[in-house]
């Protein structure tokens, strides 16, 4: 069972990723990794063509993603 401290830490890491300009996408179908994207032009979030190139990252959880991404 996942404890409350872990959930709070995961939520904080998720929020930090958003503040850094990343777009957390969710988990894979087997619940083994999380996906985070970085768009070239995130200000055009409503226009997929204008967002430009993207980088995709996979990590064990949001905390690991927050720790490893600038």
Terminal Cα separation, in Å? Answer: 30 Å
Q: Low-confidence spans: pLDDT under 50, at least 5 residues?
A: none
Overall number of structural domains:
1
Q: Quickly count the helices.
A: 2
- List SSEs in N-to-C order: HEEEH
Q: How would you describe this structure in keywords?
A:
70 residues; alpha+beta; 3 strands; three-stranded antiparallel β-sheet
Lay out the secondary structure.
Layout: H1 4-19, E1 23-27, E2 34-39, E3 54-59, H2 62-68
Antiparallel strand pairs: 1-2, 2-3
Helix pairs in contact: 1-2
Care to describe what's here?
The chain is built from two helices and three strands. It is an alpha+beta fold. The chain has a three-stranded antiparallel beta sheet. Strand 1 (about 25) and strand 2 (about 35-40) form a beta hairpin. The chain starts with a helix and ends with a helix. The model has no long low-confidence stretch (mean pLDDT about 90).
Short summary:
The protein has helices at residues 4-19, 62-68; strands at residues 23-27, 34-39, 54-59.
